[in-house]
Amino acid sequence: MNPNRLVMLSYYFPPLVGIASERASSRAESMTDLGWDVRVITVRDGHYHTVSELSTFEFPVIRTRSVEFSRIARRLYTAALRGRTVADVDATDGTIKPLSTGSRGARVRRWVREWTYIPDAQVGWIPFALLGAVRAAFPARKHALILSTSVPYSAHLAAWAAAGLSRAPWVAEFRDPWTTAHESRLPESRLRRQLDRAMERAIITRADHVVVTSETTRAGLLAAHPSLSPSRVTVVMNGFIPTADPPRPDSGERCEIVYAGTVDPGERPDVVLAALERLEARHPGRFLLRIVGPSGPWLKESQGRPDWLQCDGIVTPSAARDAMLAGSVLLLLQGHPAYTQILRGKAFEYIGARRPIVAVVPPECEMAGILRDHADVRIVPSYDVEELSNEFERLVEEHERGELAGARVPEEMTQSLTREAQARILDGILKDVLASG
What does the alpha-carbon distance between residue 5 and residue 17 come to, in Å, rounded to a whole number? Predict the structure, then answer.
């Protein structure tokens, strides 16, 4: 009997970087290990941060064309308002350069996002992803299943059409909340919000099953759509990849505080920097803040870079994981109310590293609860310079006494959150959907 075929639609996939890309690639690998015949449909030239690394996979990766509206709009804007074009990508680290628009440009960009990016900036990928998914699913006939993952939500629209044409069952995964997100992340227009809610309702109604990454997202989705049966929505978290015999910090070296990933809008790296400046004034030369990801939010244009700040830029997922494992302390910033519904993917990698974590998170949110259950976490409820500085000082002292050299929690405390364990949950969902179809 031929193995069941899993057609995965994921815009974010290597060489694009970030937790969404890494989740998709490791998910495809896990499902292959579990016996699925995996085909990944992704974009050939996505408009996002990239890293130059040749990746090979055990499964076919079908890279399609895409009309990248955000790239087109960016270039049109810079040409019209500045009389010139600018490079999209910083050649030094592969990050997308931030675009300074001023108030006039901000209004233009807001209008474009509101009324052109429907459902999102990747709408131009839909026809190509649809065609790729149909071609991958149709030959397998009754043994094929389509899995789409968002963001972008355009992946779900492509999967919806592909499932109809190929007559394959379809599972839609929402990594982040859409219409149930925090007010600050929703469109300004009431009409656009209604349109998004209608699209979301249509997707979850048509999909054979819905996967989300947190209980908070699940609760919000069920509340927003009362007709959606709770049995059709399952939580499958991001998880982490365990590492055998990881490197550990040397108490004879400076205490290394590691921040991995991007800084979300609304978070306050400036407060962290102020706290560390205060610590440096009291105890010079005893720590290093290492940034593994885009460095822009951590650099002040009017000042030079302090000698306790190291910015590595965009690196491969494996290099980022090595930095977390070797760090003395890991830093998580999730203090803005817009992100309390979300379980950050990097937080699971932090948990897997079994290092102490300083987390700026509301104590009552789901992320805080998971950290308390599975990690050595020092929760700082808000962006407070003095409290952060004092917490870092205590950890620097623990590092110098050699107390941070080993794993901070037992391995069994983290096992349920490995990507393998989470993939088995998804495997059961997919097999049930395929059997019932």
Answer: 26
Over its length of 437 residues, how does the chain's per-residue pLDDT go in tens digits? 568 999 999 999 999 888 889 899 999 999 999 999 999 999 998 877 777 666 789 999 999 999 987 776 666 656 555 554 445 545 444 555 555 555 666 677 777 778 888 999 999 999 999 999 999 998 876 789 999 999 999 999 999 999 999 999 999 999 999 999 999 889 999 999 999 999 999 999 999 999 999 999 999 999 999 999 999 999 999 999 988 777 778 888 999 999 999 999 999 999 999 999 999 999 999 999 999 999 989 997 666 789 999 999 988 888 899 999 999 999 999 999 999 888 988 999 999 999 999 999 999 999 999 999 999 999 999 999 999 999 999 999 999 999 998 889 999 999 999 999 999 999 999 999 999 87
Q: Identify the three-state secondary structure at position 265.
A: coil
Q: Where in the chain are the domains? A: 5-239+419-436, 255-415
- What is the distance between the alpha carbons of residues 30 and 72, in angstroms, rounded to a whole number? 36
Coil, helix or strand at residue 407: coil
Distance CA 256, CA 218 (A): 36
Instruction: Give the domain 255-415 fold.
Output: Rossmann fold (3.40.50)
Strand partners, 16: 50
Q: What is the 3-class SS of 140-166, one letter each residue?
A: HHHHEEEEEEECCCHHHHHHHHHHHHH
Residues 354/244, Cβ–Cβ less than 8 Å: no
CA distance 358 to 345: 16
User: What predicted TM-score, i.e. pTM, was given to this entire model?
Assistant: 0.88
Distance between start and end Cα atoms, the chain: 18
Q: Can you tell me the distance from the alpha carbon of 98 to that of 85, in angstroms, rounded to the nearest whole number?
A: 14
Other beta carbons within 10 Å of 393? 18
**How far are the Cα atoms of 274, 296, 297 from residue 301, in angstroms, in the given order?**
15, 9, 10
Q: Is 204 left (phi over 0), alpha (psi -120 to 50) or beta?
A: alpha
Is the domain 5-239+419-436 a CATH 3.40.50.2000 member? yes
Helices (H) and strands (E) in the chain, counts: 13, 13
Same fold, 5-239+419-436 and 255-415: yes
